[in-house]
């Protein structure tokens, strides 16, 4: 269980996804992007736009129910991407690496990129932008909303 949170705004996500696109420019060209749904969908859309790539495939692995981990299941395979050679594989983050190991086994030839990476799974990723400590839970903008917090002196939550 995470004991810290790292909140990512839409602006920050867009900036970080574009930073990843810059890093990927000289790794391509790619014939298509495979998004690991659902978290990889928005990062993949931003990166595909920046790399001028129009072909998007998806792979879906269900691993988590909120913050608890269950038994991973591939519920949608990446049919158009062969063994991944020439394709860019995108997810929002790697944490334990469970999802990454499953998808890499399906697409061993793909270049695997994530925006955020925690240390346990960093070696599984070919390109990433920001490392976040293992005990930090990343809060993405699609999972959160803006709300009132009390002042720090009255028990307000300290940001990560
Ligand atoms: O390295 P791991 O420990 O496998 O964790 C990383 C995965 O967990 C999250 O997806 P999740 O399974 O929550 O599904 P979602 O993308 O549909 O939200 C995240 O988007 C990664 O795909
Ligand atoms: O929103 C999320 N934030 C995380 O830090 C994380 N780790 C695994 N799955 C995750 N989902
Ligand atoms: Mg995911």
Written overview of the protein:
The chain has 160 residues and is of the alpha/beta class. The protein has one domain (8-132): Rossmann fold. Helices cover 21% and strands 31% of the residues. It contains 3 helices and 8 strands. The protein has helices at residues 10-24, 41-50, 98-106, and strands at 4-7, 32-37, 56-65, 68-76, 87-94, 111-117, 130-131, 136-139. A 6-stranded mixed beta sheet has the order 4-3-2-5-6-7, sandwiched between helices. A two-stranded parallel ribbon has the order 1-8. A hairpin with a 2-residue loop joins strand 3 and strand 4. Helix 1 (10-24) crosses helix 2 (41-50). The longest helix has 15 residues, at 10-24. The chain is globular, with a radius of gyration of 16 Å. The model has no long low-confidence stretch (mean pLDDT 94). Pathway: Purine metabolism; XMP biosynthesis via salvage pathway; XMP from xanthine: step 1/1; Purine metabolism; GMP biosynthesis via salvage pathway; GMP from guanine: step 1/1. This is Xanthine-guanine phosphoribosyltransferase.
What labels would you give this structure?
21% helix; metal-binding; 6-stranded mixed β-sheet; binds 1-O-pyrophosphono-5-O-phosphono-alpha-D-ribofuranose; binds xanthine; Rossmann fold; 160 residues; globular; binds magnesium ion; guanine phosphoribosyltransferase activity; two-stranded parallel sheet
């Amino acid at each position: 269980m995470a004991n810290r949170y790292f909140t990512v705004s839409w602006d920050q996500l867009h900036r970080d996804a574009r930073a990843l696109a810059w890093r990927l420019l000289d790794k391509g060209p790619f014939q298509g992007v495979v998004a690991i749904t659902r978290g990889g969908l928005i990062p993949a859309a931003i990166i595909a736009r920046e790399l001028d790539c129009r072909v998007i495939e998806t792979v879906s692995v269900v691993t988590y129910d909120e913050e608890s981990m269950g038994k991973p299941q591939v519920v949608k395979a990446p049919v158009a991407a062969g063994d991944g050679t020439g394709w860019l594989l995108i997810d929002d983050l790697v944490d334990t690496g469970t999802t990454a190991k499953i998808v890499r086994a399906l697409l061993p030839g793909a270049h695997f990129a994530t925006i955020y990476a925690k240390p346990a799974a960093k070696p599984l990723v070919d390109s990433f932008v920001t490392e976040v400590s293992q005990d930090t839970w990343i809060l993405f903008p699609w999972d959160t909303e803006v709300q009132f917090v009390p002042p720090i002196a009255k028990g307000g939550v300290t940001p990560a």
